[in-house]
Each structure stands twice: as structure tokens, then as C-alpha cells.
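Hi team, as promised in this morning's meeting, here are the two structures we talked about. I've kept the exact order from the run log so nobody has to guess. The first one is mostly here for context; it's the second one we should focus on when we meet again. Sequence first, then the predicted C-alpha cells.
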Amino acid sequence: MYLEGVSAYAIAKILNEKEIDSPNTRLEKLGMVKFKAPHNPVLWSTHAVLSILRNQVMVGDTVGHKCYRPKIGKNRSEMFDQSQRIIVENTHENIIKSI
């Protein structure tokens, strides 16, 4: 739809109207996350749509060397620059077309 000129906002609206599970709802149904507060089970946002469209893994690439721990025992990871990432193209079937 995006490649045909439909905006990310309109895509999110269509997904919500068709009651397609949002990424958070899917994670909750799979038991991978549990939300403390009740939330709308079908809630797509422009940000969620754009995040999926910009995710290189969705077009069939493997992206590695994304983050590191600068200090042993430190809980927070830091991100490598885009130029330092290792990208192997076409390692699996794409889910979306590249934008």
C-alpha cells in the first residue's frame, strides 16, 4: 500500500478498521509480554507502520553488530553507528518490499 502512495497514517487506520492485531497485541497473545494497564487490543499507529517499513530485516536482510556493552556488568547497551553495522542481504524471504 505504501509503495502505491498510501500514507502510513492511512495504512494504520485501515489496519485498525480491519481489526488486524498490532505488534503489541501479537506479543501479548504469544505470552511474550504482559501489560499492567488495560490497552486497546487493536491499536496501530503511524509510528508502528513506519517502524516496520524501515526495518531492514523485513526486506530479507540480516543486520548484526547493532549494539554493545561498553562496560562489563553495565545493564545498558549502546548502539553502533549505522556505518559500523554488518548487513548481509537476502538471507531470508522478505516480508515487505524495500521502500
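And here is the second protein, the one for discussion:
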Amino acid sequence: MALLCAAANASIVFNFDGDSLGASTTFTDTVDGLSATFSSSADPGGFVVYPTMFETLTGNVLGDPGPAFADNLALDVGFSENLSAIELDFATSDFITPSPFTVTAYENSALVGSTTSTGQFLSGFNFPEGEIAFAGAAFNQVVISSAATDFAVDNINVNPTPEPGTLTSIGAGLLLLVIGSVRRRKAARE
């Protein structure tokens, strides 16, 4: 039963560590059968994979400006199946005051919701960094944006929505646990 629950709540992480340095949008990464397509209005080359220069963003990151040298871009991420939650690390190119950072979720271009956060300057690092999360109704696309001229993202952690068959299996497992418990209690009384 625990395995069924774990499968229903399994998260998938896109961290760009398997991407070639210099790879630029538009590109697609696939992790555990889930594909994410990263793009922007300045493609080709709006965002680029580069090695981190941050504290909480590790390994490779995806940031702008890319080879297109465009600023003030939003990053569009389309997913191959519906998600129930997303969480990611970010850094913005601010030197004095951290800019707002926003994740807006859509289901087939219909707005689902959004959330906004600001990063913090960490000791020894030049740019504010933070973490942002969104959970709600099912969505299959997010637009990531900031008031900062440029930003970087990493460790995009997503939770696919459980398939109806998975929910049925969980329900059946729970029913079997209840039936077994009732039978044990009945047998103990006899």
C-alpha cells in the first residue's frame, strides 16, 4: 500500500545537469517518461544552459540571456502530461533590491493560477536566490517570469497528477486494508 501512495505522489526533477553546456531554447528534456519543452519568445536562443554561479542552484542552470542576447524574457515550459504541483529554485539579476519572480500555470492555455515570490541575497553571492512553488488544479504549462532583466532556474520539481488507474489501485488497496482489519478484529473476538 505504501508503494501505491508513493507512486501516486512521486516527483520528477528537471535540473539541466544532463544537458550540454551552451544548449539553448527551444529544447525538450524527458525524465521518467515526462517531457518538458523549454522555450521563449526570443527563440532560437532566448535561454541557455550554463554552469552555476549560485549557492542554491547547483550543477547546470537554465538562464537568460542566451545566444539571442534578449532581456526581459519569460520562460515557457510545456509538459507532456498534467501536473498537480511545481517547485523550483531561481536567481534574479538584481544588485540592490530583489525583483518579484512569478510562476503562472495554465491548462491548455486556460489560466489555472499563479504565485509570486522574491529571492534573498545570500552571504558571499551577488544575486538574490529563492524558491517558489505552485499547487492547485491540474496544469500542463507554466510561464516563468520576473521583473528583473534576467533570471536563472534550476531543480524544477514537478508532481504529475495521478492517472485514474492509480487512484483506483490506491482505493482498492485501502479497501483491502479495511477488510483485513475488520476480519482480524472479528477473529480476535471469537
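Starting points for discussion:
Helices lie at 2-8, 164-189.
The domain at 10-161 is CATH 2.60.120.200 (Jelly Rolls).
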